[in-house]
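Record type: monomer structure entry
Structure origin: computed from sequence
Chain ID: A
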Amino acid sequence: MVKIKLKIISYLIYHSGFSEKDLELPQSITMEELLSKINLKKQFPLVVIRNGEKINSTDKIEDGDRIVIAPFFSGG
């Protein structure tokens, strides 16, 4: 069993239906698979942070990971 903490930021909350959640997964999955599970497919430009570091959609989610998903943004 893979247990993770997941936090969603900004307007993505409306698409996922939650802002923070503890998830239990039957096995390790890729970030892309997780995004599909929580209704945040690739239609949104996203930044995904795992344990304080940016990750890619093909990276595996492991037990104990803390994931933050935010919309890509810029400013100046």
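Annotation 1: The longest strand covers residues 2-8.
Annotation 2: The longest helix spans residues 31-37.
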